[in-house]
Amino acid sequence: MSVRRRRFDTNLIVIGAGSAGLITALIAATVKAKVTLIERNEMGGDCLNTGCVPSKTLIRSAKIAHYIQDAERYGIRGASGTVDFAAVMRRVRDAIAAIAPNDSIERYTAMGVDCVSGRATMVDPWTVEVGERRIMAPNIVIATGATPFVPPIPGIGDIAALTSDDVWSLNELPQRLLVMGAGPIGCELAQSFGRLGSRVTLIDMADRILPKDDADAAALVTEALRAEGVDVRVGCRAERFDAARRVLVADEKGTKSEIAFDRALVAVGRRAHTESLGLERIGVAVGRDGTIVVDDYLRSSIPNILACGDVVGPYQFTHMASHQAWYAAVNALFGRIRKFKVNYSIVPWATYTDPEVARVGLTDEEAKARGIDVEVTRHELGHIDRAIADGETRGFIKVLTRRGSDRVVGVTIVAPQAGELISEYVLAMTHGIGLRKLMGTIHVYPTNAEINKFAASDWRRNHAPTGLLKFAARYHALWR
Q1: What CATH number belongs to 156-268?
Q2: Helix (H) or strand (E) holding 134
Q3: What's the CATH superfamily of 12-43+104-147+271-334?
Q4: Which terminal Cβ of the chain has fewer Cβ within 10 Å, N or C?
Q5: Shortest CA distance to 96 belongs to which of 126, 55, 132, 140?
Q6: What's the CATH fold of domain 355-462?
Q7: Could you give the CA distance from residue 326 to residue 330 in angstroms, rounded to a whole number?
Q8: 3-class DSSP state for residue 269?
Q9: pTM score of the predicted model
């Protein structure tokens, strides 16, 4: 049966009510399409319930505890405080509850979205089954997200391993916490639990932490973690768990070791959630990692079925899910008129350790690997007045420009609130603003944002017009 001859219940079905699905449904409702949004768990998805919101709330509490512990450095003697971990976790849940109305069924229903609770299964390319209900639409967007990957290490099933999904159910602080995986999630939680009082061991098979970020940034964060008492072990491969003794048997660069723990948190990656949708049955191509294979327009191997967010990749960030959602919604609803290629050219992200690490574009290692000739301009955070006043001088900015040009191709910032500071360079790269114009922009004093301007000034100083300066020197000499 052709699509044109079918009668549909709605214009668009969206499966998954996380960041990608919510934005897709919101856009569809805004342009007056009839849209059905299906979610089997909680509205808001990972970001609200198990990801961004709870982790950043925990990070803030941990930072306050760290400030108290470090108060004497700021001239405050006798400061003391006791971590009430159960209260910290209540605060986490309160933050989720405070934000939840923004993603609620009530809000989306009021906007005209038909919200359906239950597990969605694909019947054919136009039909989705939820319980006993069948819903038909000319286009479907899959935004089912991803779940933490738990590797098949012998004995891991016997230790009640935690993941970023269920660590928020803890009410008692683990005395000894083993964190497996030194990517952003692992590093953030390792530092936070350490600041709250756990003895933390952070391990990773790679030869350094934060392998997708700038190597100098990773080295600085490693130093910060170790200074706070986190036992960071890289080149460490887990071999098996001994549940009876609560130890992990590991291989550390060829040497056998045992790592004791009370609880283990697995943060080695996430796998796209596509298993229960019935995609293979109707012919939707799925990659080895579970992600849905899509083209430049986010269309699957069945063109009227699109996908966005973590279920697609290649970047599993909330802001990327929202970015993709616009393309998925517009291409699903208006693709017969015009289609839009999703743009991955400028993708920022941040890791919320202390100091934070934020980046956009290339690192110098990546530029070298791609054969791109770049200049690297680096400015230390310790030269910024506000950082000195705040007593938080660990960090730097690296700006990469093409050789002989002021156009930016990559930036890494390591600093408190680096995730905020990177936005200026995201704007510059998006709209082709070079370092000359950035240098000529007034920045508020004293702020850490001055590091953005100072880096631009450093670049300009290195490209000073020597001939013109010699002429200026002779000109000034005439008037002396």
Answers
A1: 3.50.50.60
A2: strand 133-136
A3: FAD/NAD(P)-binding domain (3.50.50.60)
A4: C
A5: 55
A6: Enolase-like; domain 1 (3.30.390)
A7: 6
A8: coil
A9: 0.94
